[in-house]
Structures are given as C-alpha cells and as structure tokens.
Amino acid sequence: MPEFWINMGPQHPMTHGLWNMKVKVDGETITDAKPEIGYLHRGYEKIMEVREFQKNVVLTDRLCYVSSITWSHAYCLAVEKMMGIETPERGQWIRVISLELQRIASHLMWLASYGPDLGLLTGLLWCLRERELFLDLIQLMSGARMNQNYPRVGGVRNDLPENFEAMCKRSIEHFLEKLENEYPKIFHESKVFRMRTEGVGTLSAVDAINWGVTGPNLRACGVNVDLRRLDPYETYEEIDFEPQIWQDGGVGDSYARFVVRFNELRESCNIIRQALEKMPKTGPYRVKPPRRAEGEGYAKTEDSRGEALFYVIGDGDDRPYRVKIRSPVFCTMAATPILLRGNKLADVVSILGSVDVCVGEMDK
Amino acid sequence: MSTVVRAAPVVVSGRPVPLIEKEVLGGLRAAFGAKLLDGKVLRPGHLAVTIDRDDLIPVCTYLQKTIGFEHLSCITAVDWKDRFDCTYHIENYYNGCMVQVTAHIPYDDPKIKSLTGLWNAANYHEREAWDLMGIEFEGHPNLERILLPQDFKFHPLRKDFAQEVDRQYITRRKLRGGK
Amino acid sequence: MSAPLIPNLFAVCKVLVAAIIGIVQSIIYALSGPIPPLRGLGDWLGLDAVITVVTYLIVVTIVVLWVTVLNLFTVMWVERKLYSRLQDRYGIMISIWSLPFWPFNRVHRPTHKGLGYLQNLADGVKLIQKENITPRNADSAMFHISPVLIASSTLMVFAVLPWSSGFYVANLDLGILFILAAFSLAPLGILIAGYAANNKYTLVGGFRAAAMLLSYSIPMVLAVIALVVFTGTLDPVKIVQQQDRPLVAFGTTLPLPAWYVFGPQFLGFLIFSVAMIAEMERVPFDIPEAEAELVEGWTTEYSGMRFGIVFAFKWLRMLAACALISILYLGGWSGPVFATLSVGGIPVPIVPEEIWFLLRIYFLAAFFVVLSWSVPRVRIDQILNIGWKRLIPYSLLAILVAAGFRVLG
Questions:
Q1: Residue ranges covered by each domain of chain B
Q2: Nearest-CA neighbor of C158 among C60, C225, C53?
Q3: Predicted local confidence at residue B170, as pLDDT
C-alpha cells in the first residue's frame, strides 16, 4: 500500500486548538509529519506597537488564554528590564503566588484534555472540578477567571484580599489530598494508561535541546533545566523547591512528560505555601513606571509550557517600538516530526496531547 | 576560561554560575576582538554583543562548540528604518548565561546566513522572520511562510506596512469634517 | 428452587388470545344474524391455527417491547446516571417532573427533581426529528442497509434469549449456538457501514472494528466450548437448571450455589467476559469508534435516527452480553430457596425468576459501566495482541482444565 498523507485537523476533537497536522502513513506507521500552523495568527507583534506599555497587558493575556498571568508577567518583566525599574518585594511575592496558581490551573486544563484523548473521560471532569478551586482563588485575587489583566508594569494591579490566605491554604490542602489519593488511581496505576503512554513519542535530550524544546518536555528528557532555578526572577531564589526531572528509564516518552507535569502540580502547591509564609505582610505592591522609555530589554520566564521570552525595544515613545514573543509551543511544534516518526497512527493523539499545545501562543 | 566539552546525556547543575558573564564577554573579546562592534554586560548572567552580519557564523560556532551554548532561544528581526537588525538570544544550560547577539543587516540587502546548520531550533524562527519581516536566510532548507497564508504578498511587520489603526474605517464624523 | 412469574409465556398468551378471540367470535356470531356470510368468518377465527399465529405475534411483540422499551431505557439510564455520578455530576435529569403538561409545572419547571428516566425517550424524540443525511458518493444501498443489519441481528439474539424458565419467544436446543452466531453477524454490518460511507476515517474505523470483533469471537467461542464440556447441552434453560443446586465440592456441600463461575470454569468466565467487552465495543476496547481519534469512527456519517439505532443497539448488545454471561456462568435466573413457597405442590414465587435475572444483568451492566468510564482505551495493535497472544492460549487452557476435571469426575 503506498504512503499517503492524512490530515488531522484543522477540525478535530483531539487537536485542542486550530492547527493542522499532516502525517504521512505507511499502513499504520508514521513516516513523516508536517504541522501547519497560523490559523490563529492575530498579528500581535504589530498590534503591540500601537498600544501603550501598560495597555499591552490586555493583549498578552490573550496570547495563551489558558495560562494568561504567566504571559502578561513575562511581558511586564521585559518592560521593567527595559525601563530599569524593579517591583517592590511584596509585589514580587504576590506575582509568584499568582504565577503558581496559574500554572496549576494550566496543568489541570492540560490533564483534563489529555484524559479524553486517550479515552478516559472521567479524567476530564475530575480535573475540571479541581481546577474550579484554583479559578476561584484566581478570581478572588484578580477579579476574573480567565484573561485577568492582573500583572502590571511595576507590580500587580491590586493587593491580595484578606481571606485569601485562609482560602488558599484550604484549597491547596483539599487539592493535595485528591492528588495523592484519587488521581493516581486513574492515571498512574491504570495499566491501560501506561500501555498507551510508555515508550511512545520518545525524544532524546540532545535532540530536544537542539530543536529548542523547553519546559516540562525538556525535563522529561532528563535535562535539569528549570528557569526558575537556572536564571531566577522575582523571589524564586528564596523559595526551596525541586525542579521535577524524569530520570528513570523510558526517558523522554509521553509517560515521562505526563509524570513531570503531574509532579509539578505538587511542587507548585509547595511553592505557594512557602510564599504565603515568607511574604511580607504589608508593603507596597506596585510602583508607577515612567510613561516613556527608551532602550531594550528581554526577560525569560518559565511558562507552563516552557520558556517564554519577551524582547521589548522602546525608542522614547510611550509605546514599544518592537515586541518579540518567543513561544515555547512554537519551538516544540518544530520538533513534532522527530517525535512522531516511527510511531503508529493511533499514537498521534497520545503524543501530541502530552506535548501540551496551546495554539494561542503558537500563532501569536 | 574553561572549555566545557559537551557530553550526552546532558548533566547540568541547574544553578547559575556567578560572574560567568564577564568570563564569556572576555572570551568573546579575546576570540573576535575588533569584529565585536559593541559588547556590554546587561545584568548578572546576561550580556549583549553586536556584530556585523558576516561574522555571525564564526561567533555562533564559537559560542556553541567552544563555550557550550547549546540552546538557541529566539531570533528577532527588527526594522530600524535605515537598517535591519537580527537579534539572537542564545542560552547556556550549564551556567545559566544568556548572550544577545545582534547582527546589523543593510536595508537594501536583507540577507543573512541561516543558523539551521548549528541549531535546528532556528528553523521555525527564521521562517517566521522571513514571513513577517522579509529577511532572507541563506541556507535555510525550507524558507516559506509559516504564520500567514502561503499566497500573502506583503511582509507585515515592516514599518512601511501601515498599522491597523491607520487603516481603520473612517467614521462618519471624520467624513463630515470633524475629528 | 426458583419459580418464574410467567410459567410459560406461550401458554399464558394463548389463553388470553383465546379469550379475546372468543369475545370477538361472539360479537361476530351476534352480527351474523342479519348478515349470514359472517358465520364463516366466525368459524374461521375459532380455528386453532389462527389462535396460534396470533399468539405468536403477541408473544413476539411482548418480548420485543420488553427488551427495547423497558430494558433498553433502564440500561441506558443506569449507564448514564452511573457514569455521571462517577464523574461527580448530576447526570440525566429529564423525568416526569419536567413534563410541561402538569398543571403545577406550567410556570416553574423544576430542574433538578426526579430520577431522569425519561431523558432517553427525549433523546430518541430529538434524534427522530433530525435530518437523515446520506453522504454524496456513498454506496447508498450498503449505507442504508447496515443499521438494519445490526439491528436485526441483535433482535434475533433476543428471540432466543430466555428471561426466565417461561418467559421467552422460543427455546432452541442449540440456543447458545444460535445466540453467539447472531451476535457475530454484527461485525459484517459494521464493516459495511465503515466502507459505505466514503470517508477515510470511517474506513479506518470499520477495518479496526472488523479486525477486533473477529479476533475476539474466537476466545468467546472457545470459552463456551470449555463450558459445554461440563454442561453437555447448549439449551439455556437446561444450563440454568444445572446451576440451580448447592455446590458439591470434594464431597462436602458448600453453602454456595453450583454456578459455573465457582468451579473450574472461573478462567472461562474471565475470558468470556473480556471477549464480551470487546464484542460490545466498550472502552477499553472501543477503538472502532474512538472519538478522540476518529470522530465517532464507523458511525461518523450516520445522522438522526440511524445514529440512534446504531447507538441504541450497542446498549442492547450489552444487555445480551450481560444476559449471556449470567446464564452461562452466574446461574441465570436461579434464586435462593427462600424465594419460593410451595403451595400445594405448586411453587409460588415470592421473588420471581425474572427479578433475579434482571438483578444479575444490571449488576453486570453496572460493573461494565464503571470499568468503561475509569480506564483509557487500548490501542488497536495492543488489543489484537491481547486477543491473539493472551486470550486464545488461556481459553485453550480453560478447555484443557475443563476436560481434565470432567475426566476426573
């Protein structure tokens, strides 16, 4: 039977977003893959040149709508590096808490979509139920569940409300109990789940670094790189946490990526607890940035999906001259032919689901 | 300055090494001297270097093979109206150092060598730079449009492509002569 | 040890039909005073052949309605409610409280009141009023005949499946063989459906379905062979009768009934259940209609009530599979001793056999539902791996074990 190209998408329940994946199959085995992206291209970098610095936060929220605070925070950090200002300490701690809450919500959304990919529809509802806890916390903190417009150049928009700490502790306790008791039963201990994800979509560490894969996908290949540790920003130096790296056998396959992201949920809860203790109880949370700025600055942060880098150039006007957005999913998409080659057609779902694609940041 | 030999599988300390940026800057100055148009330290762990477009491959080869900068993070194309700039952010996983290499490109000849031979990560970034800015990368295996439709005729991120606010609909008030 | 509510459906219906025809006959005789030719019609109606034919029609109607209305709705309700409670949500909620014609429901209709039993009826009505689309360039005859094939082969199963020792349409000597054969006609329908819809996805789904269903028919039949070594008969009523006594093992009488699952047939029970999960196309073996990959698989192009038929008959096949497992291994409709009173030598049921049978079926159905909704689906090559490399050797082992125990007594 000759090889032919199959189109997975752009309308497909599996692809989680609007992009097309052409795979060349020989029977059931994949010989080549060609992603086609750009369906959601909104022209961000051009639009951001027309809006003022502070108003661009509304736009960067919508880059990856599942994990909006992390993207706006990366942009604010880049602009602060360009302007040469620094957030006050309490503002930095609040930023850390908001980032970790958003990371947990993003990973839970990924897990909620990964379960049904493999046929486990119960996973969808359980993960979304837990995600509600964190969306409630984020709403308490910033006023919205999604696209919150919360980080500001120079700090955050508002301080944490009074009952935030108690509610946060309660939610995290409840969530950790669920994570220890209920989730491993349908994911880790399920033989069928491991059969579907182990040995599938392996990526070697050298390949991953060469193709620019970052974040949990890279840590699943055994590489000890976590930008919160390697190049600390905000107050991550003062927090004691472990970057989750997968070092057992089967390095770099879908199961490793799943376990790394799963463990990061636990680590994020740990970080939030420590931040709530170490945070100064009062203090300014925001400084007023200058209106016009000249220079250039870049900041890279550990987004939920990898390394997000913003490079902002200002030329003395009150709006940026050039904003460059580096999206981790864009680079991982380049590595998909390597991920998919040699696997079966039925594994495409498992592999692409474990890579955690968010089309908003890929297409800018 | 120790030369770090790359070995696979990768074993990385995971923490930043202090004062590494001065070492890297010193190494670059020693290797390339006058070809560096500008070199400065931005903040601990980050430095910026400016070169001309012909020195791109030697500098990047030196960074990758000799000092062990294995991660090409980002390729940015900037349109200053009298020249183009191609900025490369290259990161070192061993010591957490990041180098920003800026290559000047003349405005009427927007071509530069492609880095896909050194880092495969450059593949998609260079396609995006070609797509949105129009800078041609020589030696790229597959230089075609990635984010915009295949038959799109312009390079929108250039400064002579009008901003959306300038191309917006004209309100009736404006048509009647108001503001 | 257990007694049916309806000792013999045919006899009961015949009595009723004879009574009704008697009434009709007397009306016709009364009318034949002024119109003499009607007397011949009255005589003809009293013929035994006519009464028998009408009885058969009524019996078939009763059983079909029992299966497709009562049991189908109940098993659909059990599944949808159970899996939604497993997922921490309310589940289906349209019930008699939501109907608009009650006078107390005119202004405010309660949203979360009631069991939700009528939701499936509502979904059926919704599907009926949808447009039936036939894709262009599809093989029209094959496309339309495939749901009919699946439906009719499944209903043939229910023609022979007894629901107690008296409640059946027909009881064949080779009943189990007939049931398994009718069950295995459906893969043909599925393959035809996948091919006829002119769609790359359904074709892949149809191929996968055919491969999986055919390869899991083999351990299914082998497990039944291992059972037949013990029972010596393929008649479902007799098989249940053999299990209706206490278990005698190694000379002592245990307080367990002599169900075949408690004996050396346990391996056969496991193999048969796993093969049945694959035949029912349930998760973990539902790759033919894996919705994440193939957007509904071989059923993609069916819309409206055709989709409803295919979907509903998937549940009916689950019913048939649960019924088969409980007849063969779990004692069918046999109940404990206390469920029957003996009134003057005639066993009168306190809890009749049908109830015991339904209890077993729904217990098995609930187990399959919980299993389906808590595991991901297995990839097609892994499914075929399990079927050929694991189930078939184990089923041969089961035959050996059964033959060994039979020889040893």
A1: 20-175
A2: C60
A3: 65
Banded model confidence at residue A343, pLDDT cuts 50, 70, 90: confident
Mean pLDDT, rounded, for B56-75: 88
Bridge partners of A20? A36
Count contacts between A and B (CB, < 8 Å). Answer: 114
E strands in chain B: 38-43, 46-52, 71-80, 83-91, 98-106, 111-113, 136-138
Question: How far apart are the C-alpha atoms of B87 and B100, rounded to whole Å?
Answer: 7
Instruction: For residue B74, give the nearest of A311, A322, A363 by CB distance.
Output: A311
Taking residues A223-230, report their average pLDDT.
Answer: 86
Q: Which two tokens stand for residue B44?
A: 């601990």
Chain B residue numbers with beta carbons less than 8 Å from the beta carbon of A242 are none
Q: Please state the pTM of the whole predicted model.
A: 0.88
The β-bridge partners of C348 are: C341
pLDDT at residue B125 in the model:
92
pLDDT score of B2: 34
| Contact call for residues B179 and B173 (beta carbons, < 8 A) | yes
Q: Which backbone phi and psi does C248 adopt, to 5 degrees?
A: -110, 110
Percentage of chain C beyond pLDDT 70 is: 95
pLDDT exceeds 60 at position C337: yes
Q: Say whether pLDDT at B5 is over 50.
A: no
User: In sequence order, what are the residues at sequence separation of 6 or more whose Cβ sits closer than 8 angstroms to the Cβ of residue C2?
Assistant: C244, C333, C334, C335, C336, C339, C340, C349, C352, C353, C356
> d(Cα C240, Cα A175) in Å, to the nearest integer?
50
Measured distance CA(C207)–CA(C210) in Å, rounded: 5
pLDDT of C354 over the 90 cut: no
Of the candidate CATH numbers 1.10.230.10, 3.30.460.80, 3.30.1330.60, 3.40.50.970, the domain formed by B20-175 belongs to 3.30.460.80
For residues C18 and C47, give the distance between their C-alpha atoms in angstroms, rounded to a whole number.
Answer: 10
pLDDT for res C292? 47
Please determine, for residue A127, whether its predicted confidence score (pLDDT) is greater than 80. yes
With contacts defined as CB-CB under 8 Å, which chain A residues touch B42? 81
CB pair distance less than 8 Å for A229 and B15: yes
What band does B7 get if pLDDT is binned at 50, 70 and 90? very low
Instruction: Answer whether A254's CB lies under 8 Å from A201's CB.
Output: yes
Name the burial class of residue C90, with classes exposed (0-12), middle (13-18) and buried (19+) by CB atoms within 10 angstroms of its CB. exposed
Chain C neighbours (≥3 Cβ pairs under 8 A) are: A
Residue B156 confidence class, pLDDT cut points 50, 70, 90? confident
ipTM over 0.85: yes
Tell me whether C378 touches chain A (CB under 8 Å). Answer: yes
Name all domains of chain A by residue range, CATH numbers in brackets.
47-363 (1.10.645.10)
Q: A6 vs C200: CB contact, 8 Å cut-off?
A: yes
Q: Do C375 and A115 touch (CB under 8 A)?
A: no
Sign of the alpha-carbon dihedral angle for A10, A13, A18, A23:
negative
Residue A56 token pair: 């661009």
Return the number of other C-beta atoms located less than 10 Å from residue C392's C-beta: 18
